[in-house]
Amino acid sequence: MKYDRLVEIAIEAREFAYAPYSKFKVGAAVLMEDDSIYSGCNIENASFGATNCAERTAIFKALSEGHKEIKAIAVIGDPNTHTYPCGICRQVMTEFAESADIPVILIKNKEDYIIKTLDEILPGSFTKKDLEK
Predict the structure, then answer these.
(1) At what angle do helices 54-64 and 87-96 cross, to 10 degrees?
(2) Pfam families per the record (predicted)?
């Protein structure tokens, strides 16, 4: 399939999650405008506000390397269900997405995932275009 490598990288990233408090490990992989892929995992902290989600970890890694446009993102949390990104991650995705219809791949396992668009999981999003009005 078109996103097999992205799915594999997200699954691998989940293994590096640091989740001693919630025990909820999450992995993500983001495909950027030049087809480079960056992975991320959730990193918890005793001061919960200092925790960072897997999706933002992957996106921020890509941004710190000079990339600015997301083409697709894959996420895995609980392998028994399709884990959706939190609201903050959805907003960050919106900020750097090529368009509102980028694929968001929600993974249970290598063979079982669904694909939604960013607009489907965050309809009516607030964007930088809203600030220009």
Answers:
(1) 30
(2) dCMP_cyt_deam_1
